[in-house]
Amino acid sequence: MTEAIRFRLATREDLEIIVEMLANDPLGSQREHYEQPLPSGYIEAFHAISKDPNNELVVACIEHEIIGVQQITFTPYITYQGGWRATIEGVRTSPSVRGKGVGTQLIQWAIQRAKDRGCHLVQLTTDKKRTDALRFYERLGFVASHEGMKLKL
After folding, report:
1. Where are the alpha helices (DSSP H) in 33-146?
2. What's the rounded Cα separation, in Å, for the pair 37 and 39?
3. β-pair type (55-62, 6-9)
4. For residue range 24-80, what is the model confidence (pLDDT) as tens digits?
């Protein structure tokens, strides 16, 4: 991409675009519910994230257009001698910029942010059905070193 991408914390005014991007793929469309007005759960989550100094909802912009989003959570662990980890979640790019390096810039930005916060590790999960995403993260240096498990409540 030739245009400069700017990263910033998301604002409440960005939330509709963020939810729309989260819902705009085969898996996201099954679990997200984009409508106007937004369901209150999204608004409540946004306020909780924005108040938490260890959570950042970050958007990537070209001028005033939001073209990407990700959430980064910083967590202290008792392991690794009390080290901090960054977890990247909810990474999406606008369909108009897919395949143009925006996702790479999002993740590289998150990695640098984790370094700036003193983290020793960056981790993420992606659904095993997202084979393209798995290859993408591997190209960026991520290694499938652990088997993740979830329990839906």
Report:
1. 40-51, 79-82, 102-116, 131-139
2. 6
3. antiparallel
4. 887 877 888 888 999 999 999 999 999 999 999 999 999 999 999 999 999 999 999
Q: Are 76 and 84 in contact (CB under 8 A)?
A: yes
Report the C-alpha dihedral over residues 112, 113, 117, 119, rounded to 10 degrees. -60
Please enumerate in sequence order all residues whose Cβ is within 8 A of that of 10, keeping only pairs 6 or more positions apart, or say none: 18, 46, 50, 57, 58, 59, 69
User: H or E segment at 28?
Assistant: helix 28-31
User: Over the chain, what is the mean pLDDT?
Assistant: 93
Cα separation, 126 vs 149, in Å, equals 11
Token pair recorded at residue 57: 């909802």
